[in-house]
Structure formats: C-alpha cells, structure tokens
Design brief:
The protein is an all-alpha fold and 142 residues long. The chain has a single domain, classed as RNA polymerase sigma factor, region 2, helix turn helix motif (Rna Polymerase Sigma Factor, Chain: A), CATH 1.10.1740. It has six helices and no strands.
C-alpha cells in the first residue's frame, strides 16, 4: 500500500478552496490555518508593506491579520465576498490601527521634547544656571 508523501499532501491542500480552509480554521484546525497562511500571506504582506513601507511593521501587521483570522474565521460569510476580499478588509483594519497607533506615539515624543525645551527656557528666564549648564550650554552664555 502506498503512503502519501508530503508533496502529495501539499498538493491536495493547494486544491482546497480557500473558503473551505477558512471553514476548517473556524473549527480550530491549526493545519488549515497554516495552509491558508501559506497560500494568502504574500498578498497580505504585500499590501501591508505597500502602505507602511517598513518590513518589520508589515510582518507584524501580517501576523495580527492571521491572529484575527484564527479568532474571527466563523464570521466569514461566503455570500458577502471571497476569502481574499475578507482578508483585505482585515488587513485594512489592522493598517488603520497601526497608523493610528503611530500617530499617537509621535505627538507623545514631541510633547516630551517640548516639555524639556520649555523647562530649559524657564530655567534661562529664571536664571537657574544649573539647568542651563546641564543642557550643554555654559552658564556664562546664558
């Protein structure tokens, strides 16, 4: 009796419709998630990389999308669209989250820098030479 080889198994999984793989993912079949990932992650990663233009962030977003797939696979409705379009929607949502997070992080950094600059200016106005010296400006120059 012949036993299936890994290439035979891979070939069989590559022929399974994506909607069927997603149905199996909803039933918590980890190997189906792996096959879905193998077949669709290049498109998800490409979309993420095109938007964020950073390989590490694109990889992180891709991972988050497939975590969403794992937890939300039962929500997929084949009558509403294809698996590819659903993955695109999930990717878009994660990209928006990432962009919002990065925008929130940038003003915080500006605020910290602004606070330090304001403190330095207050120290100059009040004549606090120690603060001026610690900022890299000789006390005699203030």
């Amino acid at each position: 009796m012949l036993s299936p080889t890994s290439s035979t198994i891979e070939s069989a999984h590559s022929e399974v419709p994506l909607a069927d793989l997603l149905f199996l993912v909803a039933a918590r079949a980890k190997e189906s998630l792996q096959h879905l990932y193998d077949r669709t992650s290049p498109q998800v990663y490409s979309m993420a990389l095109t938007v964020v233009r950073d390989a590490d962030r694109a990889e992180r977003i891709t991972q988050q999308v497939y975590l969403d797939v794992w937890w939300r696979a039962a929500e997929f409705d084949a009558s509403a669209g294809s698996v590819e379009s659903w993955l695109t929607l999930l990717t878009r949502a994660r990209l928006i989250d990432d962009l919002r997070h990065s925008r929130r992080a940038r003003p915080a950094a500006r605020t910290q820098a602004g606070s330090a600059a304001e403190a330095w200016l207050r120290s100059i106005r009040s004549g606090a030479g120690a603060m001026v010296g610690s900022a890299g400006i000789p006390a005699s120059a203030a």
